[in-house]
């Protein structure tokens, strides 16, 4: 029998600002499982920030790096993995992630997302147009993919990080 409470990776997906990093770090502490973040792994590989990668090489190149990172995640690591918001854009990523863990979708409405991330310009997709309209547009484009990929859907509206973690557990 496994000594782990969750003998698999927990994979957090969802739009920017839905709390994937904050919830991932908290879950990691509570469950004693290591935490990792695909964005940080991409940055380590490229030795550049996400912003620099988008600016110098473009989104397509970023998506290739992200795909390579996802492919390299190990099944048996018992980790909490916070994914970049666009990881679900490639079907191969979703397939690979499903083999490696339980996919938990964190959700929030465009207004809430806007208020959580406004003023943070580290996200290239919203750098030029940080608005509720732009967030709504990208959310609408992605909604079906997020829902289709998810094995568990958690609404984060009006909830603390602790409450979201409790719900996931
Ligand atoms: C992206 C989300 C970002 C990062 C990149 C692209 C997206 O991650 O991967 O800027 O396409 O939604 P976070 O969701 O952690 O902000």
Q: Quick one: how many beta strands?
A: 5
Query: How many strands, what sense, and barrel or not for the largest sheet?
Result: 5 strands, parallel
Give the strand order, joined by hyphens, for the main sheet: 2-3-1-4-5
Question: Number of folding domains?
Answer: 1
Shape, per Cα inertia axes: globular
Q: Helical residue percent?
A: 40-55%
Counting DSSP H or I runs of 4 or more residues, the number of helices is 9
Strand content: 5-15%
CATH architecture descriptor: 3-Layer(aba) Sandwich
- Poorly predicted spans: none
**What's the pLDDT, averaged over the residues?**
95
Secondary-structure-based class equals alpha/beta
Radius of gyration: 15 Å
Task: Summarize the structure in words.
The mean pLDDT is 95. It is globular and about 45 Å long. With 169 residues, the protein is α/β, with parallel strands linked by helices. 54% of the residues lie in helices and 13% in strands. Strands 2-3-1-4-5 form a five-stranded parallel beta sheet, sandwiched between helices. It has nine helices and five strands. The protein has a single domain, classed as Rossmann fold (3-Layer(aba) Sandwich). The chain binds shikimate-3-phosphate. The site of shikimate-3-phosphate has 10 residues, from helix 7.
């Amino acid at each position: 029998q496994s000594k782990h409470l969750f003998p698999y990776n927990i994979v957090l997906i969802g739009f920017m600002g839905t709390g994937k990093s904050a919830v991932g770090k908290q879950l990691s502490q509570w469950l004693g499982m290591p935490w990792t973040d695909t964005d940080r792994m991409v940055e380590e590989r490229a030795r550049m920030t996400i912003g620099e990668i988008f600016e110098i090489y473009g989104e397509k190149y970023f998506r290739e790096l992200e795909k390579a990172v996802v492919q390299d995640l190990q099944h048996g690591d018992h980790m909490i993995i916070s994914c970049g918001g666009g990881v679900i854009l490639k079907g191969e990523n979703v397939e690979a992630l499903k083999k490696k863990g339980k996919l938990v979708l964190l959700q929030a409405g465009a207004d809430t997302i806007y208020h959580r991330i406004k003023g943070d310009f580290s996200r290239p997709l919203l750098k030029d147009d940080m608005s509720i309209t732009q967030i709504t547009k990208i959310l609408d484009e992605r909604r079906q993919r997020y829902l289709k990929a998810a094995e568990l859907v958690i609404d984060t509206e009006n909830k603390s990080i602790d409450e979201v973690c409790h719900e996931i557990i």
